[in-house]
Amino acid sequence: MAASVPRPGAYVCGIDAAMDVIGGKWKVLILWALAERPSLRFGALRREVPGITEKVLAAHLRELEADGIVHRASYEEVPPRVEYSLTAAGLRLNEALAPLGAWGREHVLDGARHP
After folding, report:
1. Which pLDDT belongs to residue 1?
2. Alpha carbons 7 and 3: distance in angstroms, whole number
3. What residue ranges in 52-115 does DSSP mark as E strands?
4. Inter-residue contact 75 to 81 (CB < 8 Å)
């Protein structure tokens, strides 16, 4: 997946590049929410990611859209309606994150913290 957003500096490896796309507290939670409910309006997405501000959600959605991870569909209705969904690249990214989620459930959520 080629990022359409210019990124600073050179990457050391593929994980470094991927983390640049999904880095931060909120982006993986946005991806998770869009995987759970494939098409969400802004307000519904905000409710699915508790604690995120409107400003941060809007900024992250713009970045994920520019990176080809999220699709924004705008409908000419009254009132206007916008829905967000994962692109094919976003679905593949979520598949790649699944083992990380499984590790987190096993090693952190289940209380079986391993050194």
Report:
1. 44
2. 8
3. 70-75, 81-86
4. yes
CA distance 23 to 28: 8
Count how many Cα atoms sit within 13 Å of the Cα of residue 15 in the half-sphere of its side chain. Answer: 2
Computed over its alpha carbons, how large is the radius of gyration of the chain? 15
Q: For residues 70 and 86, is the Cβ–Cβ distance under 8 A?
A: yes
The pLDDT tens digits for 17-70 are 888 889 888 999 999 999 999 899 999 999 999 999 999 999 999 999 999 999
- Cα torsion 20, 57, 47, 89 to 10°: value is -40
Structure tokens at 114: 């391993």
